[in-house]
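Whiteboard transcription, Tuesday session. T.W. wrote the structure tokens on the left side:
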């Protein structure tokens, strides 16, 4: 659980809440088909449904800063580097704006391309 503390009190966030913010922010970006998760049964990557977006996100914290790793599937014909840069900017902005926590790094892993 991550949080902020000041003279007025404290606010704590679970990893699930932060992962949902990351997942929803990612899905707002042009060119993203969906978040991806590895299927334990057959080892293949699958697109997650909207209610499971947090499964495509890993969050670590160190020294009150977040390190975010996410797995996505992009649309065929789009420039992946532009999509990744847009995702990074959007996630950093939204997480810091909504929670007040600082983001130190964001890693975007493209697991597939879909038509």
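and on the right, the sequence the group agreed on:
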């Amino acid at each position: 659980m991550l949080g902020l503390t000041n003279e007025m009190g404290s606010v704590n966030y679970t990893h699930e809440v932060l992962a949902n913010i990351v997942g929803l922010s990612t899905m707002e970006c042009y060119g993203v088909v969906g978040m991806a998760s590895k299927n334990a049964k057959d080892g293949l990557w699958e697109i997650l449904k909207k209610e499971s977006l947090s499964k495509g996100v890993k969050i670590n914290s160190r020294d009150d800063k977040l390190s975010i790793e996410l797995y996505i599937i992009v649309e065929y014909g789009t420039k992946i580097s532009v999509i990744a840069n847009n995702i990074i900017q959007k996630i950093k902005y939204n997480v810091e704006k909504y929670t007040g926590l600082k983001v130190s790094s964001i890693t975007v892993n493209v697991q597939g391309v879909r038509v």
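Someone added at the bottom: The domain at 11-114 is CATH 3.30.70.1350 (Alpha-Beta Plaits).
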